[in-house]
Design a protein that fits this description.
The chain is α/β, with parallel strands linked by helices. The chain has a single domain, classed as Rossmann fold (3-Layer(aba) Sandwich). The chain is 26% helix and 24% strand. An 8-stranded mixed β-sheet has the order 3-2-1-4-5-8-12-10, sandwiched between helices. A hairpin with a 6-residue loop joins strand 13 and strand 14. Helix 1 crosses helix 5 and helix 2 packs parallel to helix 3. It is globular. It starts with a strand and ends with a strand. Bound molecules: NADP nicotinamide-adenine-dinucleotide phosphate (NAP).
Length: 259
């Protein structure tokens, strides 16, 4: 397959790119400031806000054929819901013209709360405090933008509460639209294993348009501790609250916003 990855320089997109290449797929690595580290990856500078550029990039007039599948893994800091919804519509439109499948890597906020299925994680203060609500709500709006479409082939992958760089185990547990918890009691997965699930979905689409995945136990790996919590007693969090890793613009540094 030729897989177009929007956000290929990001935490998720870079791992989807690597996983896709490891399985022998061709990759169009799309972002505004593309990196060019792998000779087998074609970097393309494109602003996902620009419908014409997006159409051109997916049609891949170079040596590759048009994209067979598209992964959308973009975000802005601070969150911009209009950008996210607009970008999603633009990519869904362009992909539908080509008959390409789209996998949107969205937010955990769009999932149902495990203990209260009628309540979205985004609306549940047990997971999302007021200061993170706009981030979670943007993910919900992005899912709605997908669901509004009557045409096109898309799936929306909600990560668990915590998604951070880590180990590739090649294993994960898959669910539908309710937040999952790993056997260690936390809702988390490494970005590497999320990428495994993403490429699995492109290669063999599941039956659920909205699905989630979680770490499948076995080995010990813990996400980096939040330094703000040093010295504080660890609060009881049966499922783990939403944690959002953020990249500090133009520095490449990454931190965790956790409530
Ligand atoms: N627990 C959770 O729910 C959770 C946790 C983490 C991430 N996520 C989700 O996972 C997805 C990916 O997040 P991430 O952490 O990988 O993001 P990230 O590391 O911040 O990377 C964002 C990517 O988007 C690209 N981008 C931003 N604006 C763009 C534009 N106008 N046109 C083209 N590309 C643009 C950036 O590249 P350029 O700057 O070069 O354009 C970069 O490659 C997002 O939907 C995020 O919300 C969810």
């Amino acid at each position: 397959m030729t897989i177009a990855v929007f956000g290929a320089t990001g935490m998720v997109g870079s791992r989807v790119t690597k996983e896709s290449r490891a399985r022998g797929h061709r990759v169009l690595a799309l972002s505004r400031k593309p990196a060019n580290e792998d000779p087998d990856v074609t970097p393309v500078a494109v602003d996902v806000n620009d419908p014409r550029s997006v159409r051109q990039a997916l049609a891949a007039p170079g040596s590759y054929g048009a994209a067979d599948a598209v992964v959308l893994a973009v975000r802005t800091l601070p969150v911009d819901q209009d950008f996210l919804v607009g970008a999603t519509r633009t990519v869904l439109d362009a992909a539908a013209r080509l008959g390409a499948r789209v996998l949107v890597v969205g937010g955990a906020g769009a999932l149902r709360s495990p203990e209260e299925p009628g309540l979205l994680v985004a609306d549940n203060p047990a997971y999302v405090p007021a200061e993170l609500k706009s981030i979670a709500a943007a993910g919900v709006a992005q899912l709605r933008a997908c669901q509004d479409r009557t045409d096109g082939d898309w799936a929306y992958l909600s990560p668990p509460a915590l998604l951070e760089p880590g180990a590739r185990t090649g294993r994960y547990r898959r669910g539908t639209d309710t937040m999952l918890t790993s056997t260690d009691g936390r809702s988390w997965i490494s970005a590497e294993d999320l990428a495994v699930a993403a490429v699995d979905e492109l290669e063999a689409p599941g039956s659920d348009r909205h699905f989630t995945v979680v770490h499948q136990g076995g080995e010990q790996w813990a996400p980096p501790a939040d330094p703000r919590r040093r010295g504080e007693p660890e609060p009881v969090r049966p499922f783990g609250r939403l944690a959002l890793s953020v990249r500090v613009p133009d520095t490449g540094l990454r931190g965790i916003v956790e409530a």
